[in-house]
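note to self — DONT lose this again. spent like an hour looking for the file last time. sequence + predicted structure for the chain T wanted, 152 res
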Amino acid sequence: MTIRRLVPAILIAAAVAWGSAATTAAPRPAPQSKPGPNPGSRIQRDVDVAVDQPGPHDGTGMTTAYPFFADLKDLRMIFRKRALHAGASIGAHTQDDDEIYYVISGTGAYTLDGKTTSVSAGTALLTRPGSTHSLKQTGKDDLVVLITYLNK
């Protein structure tokens, strides 16, 4: 056998032997099984959850609320969408926990602790505990926001 053929054969034999020794010396951990799907996982669409309501927190006008997954009492977070129609508002209220609004479309006036700021699509609004806030639709189109906070 020539050296050219002998060297690869020795390397392969060494690798096989090393693999066998490694397996007997330190057993490999058993593959971990992936958890199965959670039976509570689901999909909801706007049309399935939409509810017409007056502006919350003594707000003005009419809104459409989309309380996604509201029937899941063990869900640790609340996720909602709300459309504020012409002239509608979410009334001023003091926040007990962190809450985030994210403006999807339309324009509005957001008042946080007495200071009013214009808001539009792409704006995220964080209200921390103890702050007072409100939101009013101001443009020609509905002001549509996503809202999330912890479920108590």
